[in-house]
Write a structure and sequence with these properties.
Structural class: alpha/beta
Strand content: 5-15%
Largest sheet: 4 strands, parallel
Oligomer: single chain
Radius of gyration: 17 Å
């Protein structure tokens, strides 16, 4: 099992995603692929969270709509079949509607971290769907189900090792596992992150956890 990580620029356009897909499938070996959000997305999500924190829900919604338009164009250009285009568009639309569901009243750091997690959730769904459309036996593994930090904000390796193992050991026929970098759960179970640059950290933690 190899662990590969690709940053935001590598998945920043439909063509880049196609190139990454070709690269990770070139040798037929089983891999776990860690992806960042598409280039520019996390900065935009930071801006959306700041709008909520400053009480400007209208501007937050406008930024969400602009981001949605960008992704809709990417989705239209990435997939070749109507079924996959619609399925991924529906998923992305749900994520963007979620981004509009927050209120400036009592906006918290916890909610900010939930917002920041959306980029990786969308990019990994897009990549996994593209791989499946190409006939690759691929599966999406949500980092929020296995990546966890302890009270000292350090990786909880026992939890990580046990829970990621449940996925990669459950189906030996899966050739490509895709998961999110950057995002995790904290010891309270809330959505959290490993700070900027966290996708590199995620890949290193996973590599250590699965040997």
């Amino acid at each position: 099992m190899k662990v590969l990580k690709f940053g935001g620029t590598s998945v920043g356009s439909p063509q880049r995603m196609k190139e990454v897909a070709k690269l990770i499938c070139s040798d037929g070996e089983q891999k776990l692929v860690v992806l960042s959000a598409m280039a520019g997305t996390t900065n935009t999500l930071v801006e959306i969270a700041r709008c909520y924190a400053e009480g400007d829900a209208a501007n937050a919604a406008a930024i969400v709509d602009r981001l949605k338009d960008i992704y809709s164009q990417h989705i239209a250009n990435l997939y070749s079949t109507a079924v996959y285009k619609q399925n991924v568009q529906d998923y992305a639309d749900a994520r963007f509607e979620h981004l509009k569901s927050y209120s400036p009243d009592g906006f918290t750091e916890v909610q900010e971290k939930e917002i920041l997690a959306q980029g990786e959730l969308i990019s990994t769904f897009m990549m996994t769907s593209y791989l499946c459309e190409q006939g690759v036996n691929a599966a999406l593994v949500c980092a929020l189900d296995f990546m966890k930090t302890d009270k000292e904000n350090e990786p909880d390796f026992d939890f990580i090792r046990e829970n990621i193992g449940k996925y990669i050991d459950s189906d030996s026929d899966i050739r490509i596992f895709v998961t999110q970098g950057f995002i995790c759960r904290n010891y309270k179970g809330g959505t959290d992150n490993l700070q900027r640059g966290g996708s590199d950290y995620s890949a290193s933690i996973i590599g250590a956890a699965i040997g």
